[in-house]
Amino acid sequence: MNRLTDVSRGPGPPLMITGAGRRPDAPRDGGPAGRPAEGPRALRDAELQAALRERTADLQRLKAEYDNYRKRVHRDRAAVHEIAVANVLTRFLPVLDALDAATDQGEVTGGFQRVARALEAELSALGLRPVGAVGDAFDPVVHEAVSYHPCGWFDLPTCTVVLRPGYAVGDHLLRPAMVVVAGPPPGPRVTVRQGL
Fold it and tell me: What is the pTM of this model?
């Protein structure tokens, strides 16, 4: 049989299973107690840690770039949508002008009146809103004044007649309102002489 028959050496220390061929009294980090192991393995571990930090930083930069790209695409899509809606609604303004003229003459009645209301409701749902009403303070950004009448009743220039309504969608002015403006009469002109 294959048995060890040499018993002359006497009993040795008891055998222990410690794992991975390490002696039970050896320090866990491979070097002297309290100091990290030096040598090729420690150098390789340091290189791997540096590579891991670099890859992590690269991944974080890439994620940030992708997030910015995604936000920019979303913002650009919203802008393109808003411009497309504004372009389509601009093409409908002559139709609305014709409906207003027909309504003023009393020609929009019956079924045609329901169609006109449905069209106005759908255009409003797309964001079209009228700009310029009688009594509004004159704003040259949204009003186009065709005449000015001095009047002592108003402290500020005010729209008194709307000749053609203006329209806007969102923050975009599609067309300014054509208005007649009344306001305080101009005061005496003050001239300033320079060089006195």
Answer: 0.59
- 141's enclosing H/E stretch is none
Span 96-144, pLDDT tens digits: 999 988 988 888 888 889 999 999 999 999 999 999 899 899 999 999 9
Q: In whole angstroms, what separates CA 65 from the centre of its chain?
A: 16
Whole-angstrom Cα distance, residue 126 to residue 90?
12
CA distance 122 to 120: 6
Q: How many alpha carbons lie under 13 Å from residue 61 in its C-beta half-sphere? A: 6
Q: SS3 for 172?
A: strand
Whether residue 164 contacts residue 130, with contact meaning beta carbons closer than 8 Å, is answered with: no
Tell me which amino acid residue 111 is: G
- Identify any residues that bridge with 150 across adjacent strands, giving them in sequence order: 183
- Of the candidates 178, 184, 101, 189, which has an alpha carbon nearest to the alpha carbon of residue 147? 178
DSSP structural state of residue 137: B
